[in-house]
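We recall that each integer encodes one residue's backbone shape. We quote one record:
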Amino acid sequence: MSSTPRKQDKSPNGAPFGARQLHVRNLPYDNTAAKFWTCLLDEVAHDCPECTKLVLAASTGGPLGPDLLSPTSALQRDMESLNEEDVMAAFQDAMAALEIIGPPCTVQLRLFAGDKEMTEHAIDLEYLDAELLPFLLVWLLEWAEIPEVFWDRERIGGTFVADDRERGYRYTVRFALESRHLNEGLYHRVVEVIFHRMQAQPSPPEAVERR
């Protein structure tokens, strides 16, 4: 398996990696998280069919909250509340912080067949980094219907079933998320994802509301 998931590649049956739209409890999602998780699981299932569990780990900033589900909307609200001087000050602070701490950290990926570790490597920063990881983790919590008040517990887990009706795939996902507080504003997070992808009959195209 490569360190950069191949979004445009296709599996032997001709289906591209990653869902254009995912249904969880009959609600449709075509956001980045739906594409990321299905693309990752598709590539793992294709390149390492004996894999039963994957683990992502990284040190990330900030708590997990509902604002991370719609980061663009949250950013827009924050920007609208700032005047021009505040925006410039925020930009200068961000640039100063970047010079001090450098670029985002990598996310480590480990694959397992049962209890046996198969491989470990860092995911390419062009595809995923530690700053983006929390925006993807919160969707696992959302799809598993875990109340937001529990999202930052040291260990939490959940399950959900997701359907890619266009390609005819059903994903059964069970995950466990560990969030260890290192210091102010910094957490080390490890998510274990046990998954099963099965082939189902593709559904005909239909008009659905998107989320």
About this structure: Residues 68 and 135 are 5 Å apart (CA to CA). Strands lie at 22-24, 27-29, 53-61, 108-113, 116-122, 155-164, 169-183, 186-199. Helices lie at 32-47, 71-80, 84-101, 133-143.
